[in-house]
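# nightly structure sweep
# worker-07 picked up a monomer target from the shared queue
# config: single-sequence mode, recycle default, output format = structure tokens
# input follows
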Amino acid sequence: MTTISHPHRTPGRRRLSAAAALGTVGALVLTGCGDADAGGTPTLTWYINPDAGGQEALAQECTEAADGRYRIETSLLPRDAASQREQLARRLAAGDSSMDIMSIDPPFIPELAQAGFLAPVPAETAELTTDDVLEGPLEGAKWDGELVTVPFWANTQLLWYRESVAEAAGLNMDEPVTWDQIMAAAEEQGKYLGVQGTQAESMTVWVNGLVKSAGGEIIENPGADADEIRIGLDSEAGRKAAEIVGTIGRQGLGGPGLPTANENASMIQFQSDDGSFMVNWPFIYTATQAAVEEGSVEQSMFEDIGWALWPRVNENDPSAPPLGGINLGVGASSQYPDLAYDAVECIVKPENQSWYFLTNGNPPASETAYEDAEVRETYPMYETIRESLDQAAPRPQTPYYNEVSAAIQQEWTPPASVTEDTPRETAEFIEAVLKGDQLL
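# output follows
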């Protein structure tokens, strides 16, 4: 798939990003289901990202637990993260009173918090919901050092590998391995590495993980104004990241479909006879299990899967695996912020996070949730997921994340085009965009 209460920030303390300013278009004031229904029971609207029905079920469960104090209805956001961000930003900027609870992708939290679009997290809620949250998800829930959202579920990438390939290459997977090692092993065995090379958010995820693992930062001063932000890609860490991405692209180590490969494409390649090592999210385990049941993947392939922490960039430095997931925020214009945070406390209970993992495949942010016996049986790599989430590093936490990510996606694809000059060129491009001298 990464507290405590903070003063309410007002727009304009720093220049808003282009995305946060979206809602200023028009004088439209949106209203939703925040009004009390005919029976006098307040209705809370929870804007959810698409899943397998888990958030809808939790809304119903927490409505029953509220015992008439409120009811929760869900409203479905678009499937892709960029469209989710746009809809949330527009509605929040327009003062939509139905924005009671929102499922928010961690990279978009600073933008919404800096604009003053999120209601402060009460100290009691912060204490109740974060005392056992793993380090990565906890950091991803903050902005400017303060908790502004509540971790719901977290996500992280693991290194998945075919045990037969690792053994043939002589790699001891009980010890940390490096990118150089798995690249050499894949080439030696005539297999492909599973990485995501398409021009999408997955490229920013990959680049950030490499740079952070190498001890660098994409943004050195994330809290600065747009025209003062320093991009840290033109560094030893940035050049090492470029070396890895470019080498995999130019030497064909990622397979012929690398320039358009997303997470699903990487999984399918990994499931084939050409599979070797892959960085990907935990969903691939149950997805492969389901493919075996459907008959599209052999049982022997499934039994050949191993897992480990994300590869290291430097042999002696722990990796900083990618962090994903969903946090819950409450809109500043909500009519019922206290009730909304009461509902959030219910939603993120450790037992609910365990249930959500089992039914929807999304790992808990809560350490306690991993103690569930069924979780441990269903996901035998639970310890590795938990350890990875403690090491995981958020993507750049900045109100200008959209501009930063879009530039990286543009400059680092296709992977074969990435050279030692790419980090410097990307840094210059991002800084020019943030100063208004260039357009994405």
